[in-house]
Known about the structure:
Number of strands: 5
Largest sheet: 5 strands, parallel
Strand order of the largest sheet: 2-3-1-4-5
Distance between the termini: 28 Å
Amino acid sequence: MTGLFIAFEGGDACGKTTQARRISELLGAVFTREPGGTEVGESLRELLLDAETPLGFRTEALLMAASRAQLVEEVIRPNLESELHVVSDRFLASSIVYQGYATGLPLNEVRDLSIFATNGLLPDLTILIDLPVDLAMRRRTEMPDRFESEASAFHEKVREGYLELAETAPEKWVVIDGSGSLEQVSSRVDDAIMNHLKLVLGNSSS
């Protein structure tokens, strides 16, 4: 027996972080994020998100993979093996989409690098909070980081990449319409988790 691993994915400002934190609290799960989640990962996060630091696309992919490798080894796998559920704000799919679909690096190479970093670990369920790019850009309230600073065409590729990935593995992905109210989106997320993973959520909005 191991815990269940749930990853939340989506474009910037889609609301996934809010949902990931909420679900982790309802499940009593370990919450983590990418890039970050460990001392090494948080140092890499600062570098990766700094819009003023120039990074090549391959460098970016390698740093993301390094952060993920440390997170799996230090946080995710040990907790799953201790029969604790883990909820992550972003995981492997983010690299495939942001460093693959959006920048043009070969998808298979980015995927293989990510699989190497996780030693084959994949989420039991990935929840994609889907939101039109124009609406997501209107939701931003803070100074944009490296990825948020990209043009709308970049973010359209991100969205298209996520939707394509979700279509390839419908048994492992759920696409949630993120354009409704917080209560509406929360209810959709709760239903997806209960239906796909047969988990009971305490104080669920559903």
